[in-house]
Amino acid sequence: MNVDGDQFVECGLGHRHWGKYGAAGLLLHHGDMVLLQQRSALSMGPGTWGLFGGACARDEPPVVTALREAAEESTVDVRTVRVRGVLREDHKGWHYDTVVADVESLPEVLPVSWESMDARWVPSGQVADMDLFDPFAHSWPKVRDAMRRPVLIVDTANVMGSRADGWWRDRHGAATRLRDQLDALDGLPLPPFDVAYPEIVMIVEGKAGGVGDSERVRVVSAPGEGDDTIVDTVREYAGEPEAEVFVVTADRELKRRSQEAGASILGPRWLLDQLSR
Ligand SMILES: [Zn+2]
């Protein structure tokens, strides 16, 4: 597909780039294996290895660009990929977004457009040894460290207690409202990403119990003390490879226990600010 951004532009740093409205690429990985595209003889950097991707259309979100381009240029079934976050390189007036995503199994991927010579799964430790497309060679060290899977665990009682919305009259209703707001979030600034799409887990207790999962939010009802369930949930995720776990709470003791279990801590105010953006 030709998009309205398909042209060369000069960025504020004086480089020449493809993509009037910026460009985006898909860093797809399965565990340690990374999908690379060998660029065709007719493209910039002929024969070098980089990411499937291309120019953004006007107002097109980078995740959409990266998945669209990957689907146009290869046999990747983008319905099976899980997007974890976006890393942005800002070139003053132009930007390149690396969309980090993973797949549960390692599918065979073939190149299908004139833009690609080949496609290959490469162990991350061997990527730097390949003949890389210059911009990708430049971004790879940062991208490599971002092959992560963000998880956000919410201390629901603590977050609800941080806003005066009448939660004390109807804890179940307030927890449901919070769940729906979390479900509607379009990305969060969680390191190492500029925009992350975390798995979200709400821990509810007492009268807020019985709130069900939504499409994007897993709700866990604590059988007793919510703090114990939160720490158990941190352990459950932090034990998985690539997981980057964040706990939202202002509770001092819970912060300490969560950090010990492998999580980073964010405050309720931070989350409420994100919800009101
Ligand atoms: Zn530039």
TrEMBL record:
Domain spans labelled Nudix hydrolase: 19-148
InterPro entries cross-referenced by the UniProt entry: NUDIX_hydrolase-like_dom_sf (IPR015797), NUDIX_hydrolase_CS (IPR020084), NUDIX_hydrolase_dom (IPR000086)
Gene Ontology molecular function terms on file: hydrolase activity
Gene3D superfamilies hit by this protein: Nucleoside Triphosphate Pyrophosphohydrolase
Keywords: Hydrolase
Keyword Lipoprotein: no
Cofactor(s) listed: Mg(2+)
UniProt name for this protein: ADP-ribose pyrophosphatase YjhB (NUDIX family)
